[in-house]
Design goal:
By secondary structure, this protein is mainly alpha-helical. Helices cover 73% and strands 0% of the residues. It starts with a helix and ends with a helix.
Length: 119
């Protein structure tokens, strides 16, 4: 502890490092909390306002990818057939530039279909 009295910047650096470590664990825990919520609600109808907000949020290539994938989803399931699971998938696929939005498989997110594969 003598070294901390002589060099207070070491205590400062250690406290900053611990703060970042605590923040990392906090955000990781919150991320898994949100993921659990999405999984629990994946079969509920999507909020069209949230989907429409994607047009404002994304720009450039990501906006083009968003529109192409959303168009495919709406062709398969209609405007009112999109689920919260589709919202999460839309964000994940558009954010990952390695995934091809024109060929990615779009699941139905229908509770009966999903429950047969889980059990």
């Amino acid at each position: 502890m003598e070294i901390l009295k002589e060099y207070p910047f070491i205590a400062f650096i250690l406290s900053i490092a611990l703060l970042f470590l605590a923040a990392k664990f906090y955000f990781k825990a919150m991320g898994s909390k949100h993921a659990k919520e999405i999984i629990k609600r994946q079969f509920e109808p999507a909020d069209q306002k949230v989907i429409e907000a994607g047009f404002k949020f994304y720009s450039g290539k990501k906006r083009e990818r968003y529109i192409r994938l959303l168009t495919r989803m709406r062709q398969q399931y209609g405007h009112d057939g999109l689920k919260i699971g589709h919202q999460a998938m839309l964000i994940a696929v558009v954010s990952d530039s390695k995934q091809d939005v024109d060929t990615v498989q779009i699941p139905p997110f229908v509770d009966e279909a999903f429950s047969k594969h889980v059990e």
